[in-house]
Specification:
The radius of gyration is 15 Å and the shape is globular. It is of the alpha/beta class and 156 residues long. The chain has one domain: Nucleotidyltransferase, domain 5. The model has no long low-confidence stretch (mean pLDDT 94). The longest helix is centred in the first third of the chain and has 14 residues. It has a 5-stranded mixed beta sheet with strand order 3-2-1-4-5. It is built from 6 helices and 5 strands.
Length: 156
């Protein structure tokens, strides 16, 4: 069983953002994080999950993802995502990331567990710190999916 903790942050919504991920398998532990110059909180929450799943080297793993994002957890666990796919994401945001998510999700046996944010879950708190630090860091990348769709700034 692989455990993935995730969190996303945005300083403003939209604004600079980042994600944090902690992957755990037996005695192994890995942290992932990155920051973007213009994005949204929901995009960073979803990107954290994608990056966690992309980091898995072997398909078919049993994975539990802990997230404080109702947006992500409910979209999958309540089945909303599958309806959005049937309607080709009509009027839905973050289509680019949801499509990436589905590719990674289908490679494994994934279940989600919602955790209350800022409630003392140690690994969720680590993810939060990683996400915030990345959002505030230097050299932020372009969230091309967000910036190109919203024409908010020139993508470099």
């Amino acid at each position: 069983m692989i455990t993935i903790y995730t969190d996303g942050a945005a300083k403003g919504n939209p604004g600079p953002g980042g994600y944090g991920v902690v992957l755990k398998y037996k005695e192994h532990r890995k942290e992932l994080t990155d920051g973007f110059r213009l994005t949204t909180n929901n995009r960073m929450e979803l990107l954290a999950v994608i990056k966690g799943l992309e980091a898995l080297k072997t398909p078919g793993q049993d994975v539990t993802i802990y997230s404080d994002s109702k947006y992500v957890v409910d979209a999958v666990e309540k089945g909303w995502l599958w309806g959005w796919i049937k309607k080709d994401f009509k009027d839905k945001k973050n289509e680019d990331l949801w499509k990436k998510f589905v590719v990674e999700y289908k490679k494994h046996k994934v279940k989600f567990q919602w955790v209350k944010g800022h409630a003392g879950n140690a690994e969720n708190e680590v993810c939060d710190r990683l996400a915030v630090r990345s959002a505030e860091g230097p050299g932020l990348k372009a969230d091309v999916g967000y910036e190109s769709l919203n024409n908010n700034t020139t993508v470099k």
